[in-house]
Amino acid sequence: NTGRNDSLLPFRNGLPSAIDNTEMSTIARRGIHFMQRLNSANVSSALLEKGQNRVIDASLTLIRERAKLKASHYLGELVRALGGAVATSSLLGVPLGHNSSFLQGPAFAPPRIREAIWCGSTNSTTEEGKDLQDARVLTDVGDVPIQEIRDCGVDDHRLMNVISESVKLVMEEDPLRPLVLGGDHSISFPVIRAVSEKLGGPVDVLHLDAHPDNYDAFEGNIYSHASSFARVMEGDYVRRLLQVTFYS
Q1: Alpha carbons 52 and 201: distance in angstroms, whole number
Q2: 151-174 b/e with 16+ CB inside 10 Å = b?
Q3: Considering the entire predicted model, what is its pTM?
Q4: pLDDT tens, position by position, for the chain (248 residues)?
Q5: Mind listing the domains of the chain with CATH numbers?
Protein backbone atom coordinates (compact mmCIF):
# COMPACT_ATOMS: atom_id res chain seq x y z
CA ASN A 1 0.00 0.00 0.00
CA THR A 2 1.69 3.21 -1.16
CA GLY A 3 -0.68 5.49 0.73
CA ARG A 4 -1.57 7.36 -2.47
CA ASN A 5 -5.07 7.95 -3.75
CA ASP A 6 -4.52 6.16 -7.08
CA SER A 7 -7.86 7.32 -8.46
CA LEU A 8 -6.47 10.86 -8.57
CA LEU A 9 -3.02 10.05 -9.93
CA PRO A 10 -3.50 11.18 -13.53
CA PHE A 11 -5.00 14.54 -12.63
CA ARG A 12 -3.37 15.76 -9.44
CA ASN A 13 -0.71 18.48 -9.22
CA GLY A 14 2.26 16.11 -8.99
CA LEU A 15 3.30 12.73 -10.33
CA PRO A 16 5.24 10.06 -8.46
CA SER A 17 8.97 10.14 -9.03
CA ALA A 18 8.94 6.60 -10.36
CA ILE A 19 6.19 4.76 -12.20
CA ASP A 20 6.21 1.08 -13.12
CA ASN A 21 4.30 -0.61 -15.92
CA THR A 22 1.31 -1.50 -13.74
CA GLU A 23 0.92 2.07 -12.50
CA MET A 24 1.23 3.43 -16.02
CA SER A 25 -1.50 1.11 -17.27
CA THR A 26 -3.74 2.17 -14.38
CA ILE A 27 -3.07 5.85 -15.05
CA ALA A 28 -3.75 5.42 -18.75
CA ARG A 29 -6.99 3.45 -18.31
CA ARG A 30 -8.42 5.85 -15.76
CA GLY A 31 -7.27 8.81 -17.80
CA ILE A 32 -8.95 7.43 -20.92
CA HIS A 33 -12.22 6.74 -19.11
CA PHE A 34 -12.12 10.20 -17.58
CA MET A 35 -11.51 11.82 -20.97
CA GLN A 36 -14.33 9.82 -22.55
CA ARG A 37 -16.72 11.05 -19.87
CA LEU A 38 -15.59 14.63 -20.44
CA ASN A 39 -16.13 14.30 -24.18
CA SER A 40 -19.61 12.87 -23.73
CA ALA A 41 -20.45 15.66 -21.27
CA ASN A 42 -19.50 18.34 -23.82
CA VAL A 43 -17.18 20.12 -21.38
CA SER A 44 -14.83 22.99 -22.18
CA SER A 45 -11.79 22.49 -24.40
CA ALA A 46 -9.61 23.89 -21.60
CA LEU A 47 -10.63 21.08 -19.26
CA LEU A 48 -10.10 18.50 -21.98
CA GLU A 49 -6.63 19.84 -22.66
CA LYS A 50 -5.81 19.78 -18.95
CA GLY A 51 -6.73 16.10 -18.78
CA GLN A 52 -4.70 15.33 -21.89
CA ASN A 53 -1.71 17.13 -20.41
CA ARG A 54 -1.88 14.93 -17.31
CA VAL A 55 -1.79 11.75 -19.37
CA ILE A 56 1.07 13.08 -21.52
CA ASP A 57 3.02 14.08 -18.38
CA ALA A 58 2.53 10.60 -16.96
CA SER A 59 3.74 9.05 -20.22
CA LEU A 60 6.90 11.17 -20.29
CA THR A 61 7.53 10.43 -16.61
CA LEU A 62 7.40 6.73 -17.43
CA ILE A 63 10.08 7.06 -20.12
CA ARG A 64 12.22 9.40 -17.99
CA GLU A 65 12.23 7.09 -14.96
CA ARG A 66 12.96 3.99 -17.03
CA ALA A 67 15.91 5.74 -18.67
CA LYS A 68 17.23 6.88 -15.28
CA LEU A 69 16.87 3.35 -13.97
CA LYS A 70 18.89 1.90 -16.84
CA ALA A 71 21.59 4.58 -16.70
CA SER A 72 22.18 4.99 -12.96
CA HIS A 73 20.77 1.80 -11.47
CA TYR A 74 23.15 -0.79 -10.02
CA LEU A 75 23.73 -1.99 -13.59
CA GLY A 76 25.53 1.31 -14.04
CA GLU A 77 27.35 2.02 -10.80
CA LEU A 78 28.16 -1.59 -10.00
CA VAL A 79 29.39 -2.37 -13.49
CA ARG A 80 31.59 0.74 -13.48
CA ALA A 81 33.00 -0.27 -10.10
CA LEU A 82 33.93 -3.63 -11.59
CA GLY A 83 35.70 -1.94 -14.46
CA GLY A 84 33.02 -2.64 -17.06
CA ALA A 85 30.98 -0.44 -19.36
CA VAL A 86 27.30 0.49 -19.25
CA ALA A 87 25.16 -0.18 -22.32
CA THR A 88 24.81 2.76 -24.66
CA SER A 89 22.22 1.33 -27.07
CA SER A 90 18.77 1.46 -25.51
CA LEU A 91 15.60 0.20 -27.18
CA LEU A 92 12.69 2.65 -27.28
CA GLY A 93 9.49 1.39 -28.87
CA VAL A 94 7.08 3.69 -30.72
CA PRO A 95 4.07 1.46 -31.54
CA LEU A 96 2.37 3.84 -33.97
CA GLY A 97 0.57 2.57 -37.07
CA HIS A 98 -2.38 4.86 -37.81
CA ASN A 99 -0.43 7.02 -40.28
CA SER A 100 0.09 4.08 -42.59
CA SER A 101 -2.01 4.31 -45.76
CA PHE A 102 -2.42 0.53 -45.95
CA LEU A 103 -2.21 -2.01 -43.13
CA GLN A 104 -1.86 -1.09 -39.44
CA GLY A 105 0.61 -3.83 -38.54
CA PRO A 106 3.60 -1.57 -37.73
CA ALA A 107 1.97 -0.68 -34.41
CA PHE A 108 2.51 -4.27 -33.27
CA ALA A 109 6.17 -4.40 -34.27
CA PRO A 110 8.11 -3.29 -31.14
CA PRO A 111 7.14 -6.25 -28.92
CA ARG A 112 7.62 -8.67 -31.82
CA ILE A 113 11.11 -7.30 -32.48
CA ARG A 114 11.94 -7.72 -28.81
CA GLU A 115 10.73 -11.32 -28.90
CA ALA A 116 13.10 -12.00 -31.78
CA ILE A 117 16.02 -10.29 -30.03
CA TRP A 118 15.58 -12.12 -26.72
CA CYS A 119 14.50 -15.44 -28.25
CA GLY A 120 16.67 -18.27 -26.98
CA SER A 121 16.90 -19.84 -30.44
CA THR A 122 18.71 -16.85 -31.96
CA ASN A 123 22.43 -16.18 -31.99
CA SER A 124 22.76 -13.12 -29.78
CA THR A 125 26.52 -12.74 -30.20
CA THR A 126 27.69 -9.99 -32.56
CA GLU A 127 30.68 -10.05 -34.92
CA GLU A 128 32.62 -8.15 -32.24
CA GLY A 129 31.89 -10.83 -29.67
CA LYS A 130 29.32 -8.81 -27.74
CA ASP A 131 26.28 -10.61 -26.36
CA LEU A 132 22.98 -8.79 -26.88
CA GLN A 133 21.59 -10.68 -23.90
CA ASP A 134 24.05 -8.78 -21.70
CA ALA A 135 22.46 -5.69 -20.14
CA ARG A 136 25.83 -3.95 -20.46
CA VAL A 137 25.51 -4.21 -24.24
CA LEU A 138 21.83 -3.54 -24.94
CA THR A 139 19.16 -2.19 -22.61
CA ASP A 140 15.47 -1.34 -22.99
CA VAL A 141 13.37 1.58 -21.73
CA GLY A 142 10.06 0.23 -23.04
CA ASP A 143 7.45 1.80 -25.31
CA VAL A 144 5.94 5.24 -25.64
CA PRO A 145 2.25 4.53 -24.76
CA ILE A 146 0.96 5.77 -28.12
CA GLN A 147 -2.51 4.23 -28.04
CA GLU A 148 -3.26 5.40 -24.51
CA ILE A 149 -2.33 8.95 -25.50
CA ARG A 150 -4.43 8.84 -28.68
CA ASP A 151 -7.40 7.44 -26.78
CA CYS A 152 -7.44 10.69 -24.81
CA GLY A 153 -8.06 12.66 -28.00
CA VAL A 154 -4.50 13.93 -28.46
CA ASP A 155 -3.93 14.95 -32.09
CA ASP A 156 -0.94 14.00 -34.23
CA HIS A 157 0.81 17.35 -33.80
CA ARG A 158 1.03 16.89 -30.04
CA LEU A 159 1.70 13.17 -30.41
CA MET A 160 4.76 13.89 -32.56
CA ASN A 161 5.97 16.24 -29.82
CA VAL A 162 5.56 13.48 -27.22
CA ILE A 163 7.65 11.12 -29.36
CA SER A 164 10.37 13.75 -29.78
CA GLU A 165 10.43 14.48 -26.05
CA SER A 166 10.63 10.76 -25.26
CA VAL A 167 13.70 10.38 -27.48
CA LYS A 168 15.33 13.40 -25.81
CA LEU A 169 14.65 11.98 -22.35
CA VAL A 170 16.57 8.83 -23.22
CA MET A 171 19.44 10.88 -24.66
CA GLU A 172 19.63 12.92 -21.45
CA GLU A 173 20.66 9.86 -19.46
CA ASP A 174 24.33 9.41 -20.29
CA PRO A 175 25.50 7.10 -21.80
CA LEU A 176 22.17 5.92 -23.25
CA ARG A 177 21.50 6.36 -26.95
CA PRO A 178 18.03 5.46 -28.25
CA LEU A 179 17.60 2.65 -30.75
CA VAL A 180 14.02 3.36 -31.83
CA LEU A 181 11.66 0.58 -32.89
CA GLY A 182 8.70 1.59 -35.09
CA GLY A 183 6.02 1.94 -35.86
CA ASP A 184 5.17 3.25 -39.32
CA HIS A 185 7.52 5.61 -41.12
CA SER A 186 5.83 8.74 -39.79
CA ILE A 187 7.96 8.39 -36.66
CA SER A 188 11.10 9.23 -38.66
CA PHE A 189 10.21 12.91 -38.38
CA PRO A 190 9.88 13.25 -34.58
CA VAL A 191 12.88 10.98 -33.97
CA ILE A 192 15.24 12.86 -36.31
CA ARG A 193 13.93 16.18 -35.01
CA ALA A 194 14.67 15.12 -31.43
CA VAL A 195 18.22 14.04 -32.21
CA SER A 196 18.91 17.24 -34.16
CA GLU A 197 17.54 19.49 -31.42
CA LYS A 198 19.32 17.57 -28.68
CA LEU A 199 22.67 17.71 -30.48
CA GLY A 200 22.22 21.37 -31.32
CA GLY A 201 22.09 21.32 -35.11
CA PRO A 202 21.36 19.44 -38.34
CA VAL A 203 22.49 15.81 -38.52
CA ASP A 204 23.52 13.43 -41.30
CA VAL A 205 20.96 10.72 -42.11
CA LEU A 206 21.34 7.46 -44.04
CA HIS A 207 17.82 6.45 -45.12
CA LEU A 208 17.36 2.87 -46.37
CA ASP A 209 13.87 2.52 -47.80
CA ALA A 210 11.89 1.57 -50.88
CA HIS A 211 10.42 5.07 -51.07
CA PRO A 212 11.72 8.58 -50.32
CA ASP A 213 8.69 9.45 -48.12
CA ASN A 214 8.76 13.08 -49.24
CA TYR A 215 5.16 13.78 -50.28
CA ASP A 216 4.10 17.12 -48.87
CA ALA A 217 0.84 15.72 -47.48
CA PHE A 218 0.07 12.23 -48.75
CA GLU A 219 -3.70 11.69 -48.91
CA GLY A 220 -4.11 15.03 -47.12
CA ASN A 221 -2.11 13.95 -44.07
CA ILE A 222 1.02 15.98 -43.33
CA TYR A 223 2.11 13.30 -40.85
CA SER A 224 1.57 10.42 -43.26
CA HIS A 225 4.15 7.64 -43.38
CA ALA A 226 4.84 8.89 -46.92
CA SER A 227 5.49 12.49 -45.79
CA SER A 228 7.97 12.07 -42.95
CA PHE A 229 11.05 13.32 -44.82
CA ALA A 230 9.15 16.30 -46.18
CA ARG A 231 8.67 17.36 -42.55
CA VAL A 232 12.30 16.58 -41.74
CA MET A 233 13.69 18.65 -44.61
CA GLU A 234 11.40 21.64 -44.16
CA GLY A 235 12.43 21.79 -40.50
CA ASP A 236 16.12 21.99 -41.41
CA TYR A 237 16.95 19.08 -39.13
CA VAL A 238 19.25 17.37 -41.65
CA ARG A 239 22.57 18.54 -43.05
CA ARG A 240 23.08 15.65 -45.46
CA LEU A 241 20.46 13.07 -46.40
CA LEU A 242 21.49 9.93 -48.29
CA GLN A 243 18.50 7.88 -49.46
CA VAL A 244 19.24 4.39 -50.79
CA THR A 245 17.46 1.52 -52.63
CA PHE A 246 14.25 2.97 -54.04
CA TYR A 247 12.12 0.84 -56.34
CA SER A 248 9.18 3.21 -56.82
Answers
A1: 30
A2: bbbbebeebbebbbbbbbbbbebe
A3: 0.78
A4: 444 444 434 433 444 444 555 566 566 566 655 555 555 556 688 888 898 999 999 999 999 999 988 876 555 566 566 555 566 889 999 999 999 988 779 999 999 999 988 887 778 888 888 888 877 788 899 999 999 999 989 999 999 999 999 999 999 988 889 999 999 999 999 999 999 999 999 999 999 999 999 999 999 999 999 999 999 999 999 999 999 977 75
A5: 6-244 (3.40.800)
